[in-house]
TrEMBL record:
Keywords from the UniProt entry: FAD, Flavoprotein, Glycoprotein, Oxidoreductase, Signal
GO molecular function, one term: cytokinin dehydrogenase activity
Reactions this protein catalyses: N(6)-dimethylallyladenine + A + H2O = 3-methyl-2-butenal + adenine + AH2
Residue intervals of the FAD-binding PCMH-type domain: 67-245
Protein name: cytokinin dehydrogenase
Database matches in Gene3D superfamilies: 3.30.465.10, FAD-linked oxidases, C-terminal domain, Uridine Diphospho-n-acetylenolpyruvylglucosamine Reductase, domain 2
Length: 399
């Protein structure tokens, strides 16, 4: 007796094939990691931290999302010695083993630099060897682990009225990660990138040696590691220059539709005297309701015109500017009001602060009047340094 043929819908066939492929690749991954010739030797290494041979898929991705190289293991170090041990082990194995090592901070590399195909990825955020140490004085600085986040450096240094001279726009990145690249920031036109504001480094070299370096000690290694993309050593600790933190920040954001005008204004501001303290530009492509998103953190100078501005389908260029104030407008107003209420003369220092504050506001207005931005897109906000950076994060990375 013949049975009629059974036909599965095409979508069901595709679904079944996809499931089989996922199961197959998962089995291959597990088998590859567990059966790798390098796995037994890694398990014998004396470590304070530990290896993870199973949960490794997250280490095969980065911010660039262009490459996915699966490691054989992820090392979660507790000490600098752990990092030196694995690097020394790879060095001793020699090139025939094909085992490689890559340091991974917050995974914001673009070309797979923080990945290691069938190698070992070192999770630098696990390295918490010591607390952040702030040193005050005439030349303040901070000592911190290479796996520490910049946002934590800023929070801790602000407790002492200090802040890093140069920082990236996104602060949820590791110190070792940005110093291995350059650390371009909106203050770079004044202070240089982050790598120009480092006094000293602790580095694990390619041979697994732990070395301190600076401009006076092991100078070649110092300058090779800074901006060296991790090819000359792994940064495990850094001493970074600080400066007095401003009391308030006036944060300004404007848009351009013409690229030439955008770049000319940016160059003009960076070369002018009495200009802004932070200057940064970036491209925005086809962002729906852009100005409406800004309103949660910034105040529009022309709300009516801003509400009518359409960003959909457009390529726009954003210029972000900041002016630092080492005095608090609220404090000045309170002290002047208090003196007037008691019919007392205003303190001379307060008057000087008031004049300085007025001059700074005048400089801002004069600088803005010389720019060729779209007038309806001027947004302004005044806040503390930390609040301003957190607002930046939420308006740029949460919308």
């Amino acid at each position: 007796m013949r049975y009629p043929p059974v036909y599965f819908p095409k979508q069901m066939n595709v679904f079944i094939i996809e499931c089989i492929m996922v199961l197959f690749m998962s089995c291959v991954t597990i088998r590859t990691n567990l059966c790798s010739p390098n796995t037994p030797s890694l398990k014998t290494l004396p470590l304070d931290g530990h290896f993870n041979f199973h949960e490794v898929h997250h280490a095969a991705r980065d911010f660039g999302n262009r490459y996915q190289f699966l490691p054989v293991a992820v090392l979660h170090p507790k000490t600098v010695s752990d990092i030196a041990t694995i690097v020394r082990h790879v060095w001793d194995l020699g090139p025939r083993s094909e085992l490689t090592v890559a340091a991974r901070g917050h995974g914001h590399s673009l070309q797979g630099q923080s990945q290691a195909h069938q190698g070992v990825v070192i999770n630098m955020e696990s390295l918490k060897v010591a607390q952040i140490q702030i040193h005050t004085g005439s030349s303040p600085y901070v000592d911190a682990s290479g796996g520490e986040l910049w946002i934590n450096i800023l929070r801790e240094s602000l407790k002492y009225g200090l802040a890093p001279k140069s920082w990236t726009d996104y602060l949820h990145l590791t110190i070792g990660g940005t110093l291995s690249n350059a650390g371009i920031s909106g203050q770079a036109f004044r202070h240089g990138p982050q790598i120009s504001n480092v006094h000293q480094l602790e580095v694990v070299t390619g041979k697994g040696e732990v070395v301190n370096c600076s401009e006076e000690q092991n100078e070649d290694l110092f300058h090779s590691v800074l901006g060296g993309l991790g090819q000359f050593g792994i940064i495990t600790r850094a001493r970074i220059s600080l400066e007095a933190a401003p009391a308030r920040v006036k944060w300004i954001r404007v848009l351009y539709s013409d690229f030439t005008a955008f770049t000319q204004d940016q160059e003009h501001l960076m070369s002018a005297e009495n200009t802004f303290d932070y200057i940064e530009g970036f491209v925005i492509i086809n962002r729906t309701g852009l100005l409406n998103n800004w309103r949660s953190s910034f105040n529009s100078k022309d709300p009516v015109q801003a509400s009518q501005f359409k960003s959909d389908g457009k390529t726009l260029f954003c210029l972000e500017l900041a002016k630092y104030f080492n005095l608090d407008k609220t404090k000045i107003i309170d002290e002047v009001s208090n003196a007037m209420a008691h019919q007392q003369p205003v303190n001379f220092e307060i008057l000087n602060d008031l004049v300085e504050f007025s001059c700074n506001l005048t400089e801002i207005e004069n600088s803005l009047s010389q720019l060729s931005y779209i007038r309806s897109t001027l947004f302004v906000e005044t806040a503390s340094v930390l609040r301003q950076r957190l607002k930046y994060f939420y308006t740029n990375y949460k919308t």
